[in-house]
Amino acid sequence: MRDEQALFTVELLPKSSTADIRLDDLLEQMQAIRTALRETERFISGGREPSLYLRINDIHKNSPLEATLEAVPEDSEVLSAPPASTSYASTIVRTMSTNLRVISQRRKRPVKVD
């Protein structure tokens, strides 16, 4: 069962408005998203090893490129994950998106984030 709250969509933009997105740019931006997820999980879990990975559920190369990602517990089965794990993934994704929104709007890190 897929947890819709662990899904999120990102827009990946080229470095210049007239250029196509380059593979290096795509990988760099995806790595930044992965790092944000891992750091959010580290902060919430109190420093435990990361237990989530990102699965690409959908990708569209329009302008801009959009990817729908899902935070998935490492030990879950492809089709079904334990409810506690999916709830945990949802919490991490919600916290990460809230923190990124605060950074985007206020241009500084949230108060409770190291």
Written description of the protein model:
- By secondary structure, the chain is of the alpha+beta class.
- Helices cover 41% and strands 22% of the residues.
- It has two helices and three strands; from the N terminus they run βαββα.
- Strand 2 and strand 3 (65-73) form a beta hairpin.
- The longest helix has 24 residues, at 83-106.
- It is globular.
- 15% of the residues are buried.
- Mean pLDDT is 80; it is low at 78-83.
Strand order within the widest beta sheet: 1-3-2
**H and E order:** EHEEH
End-to-end span in angstroms? Answer: 33 Å
Low-confidence stretches: 78-83
Quaternary? single chain
Q: What structural class do the secondary elements suggest?
A: alpha+beta
Lay out the secondary structure.
Blueprint: E1 7-12, H1 23-45, E2 52-61, E3 65-73, H2 83-106
Antiparallel strand pairs: 1-3, 2-3
Helix pairs in contact: 1-2
Write a concise keyword list for the protein shown above.
114 residues, alpha+beta, 2 helices
In brief:
With 114 residues, the chain is an alpha+beta fold. Helices cover 41% and strands 22% of the residues. It has helices at 23-45, 83-106; strands spanning 7-12, 52-61, 65-73.
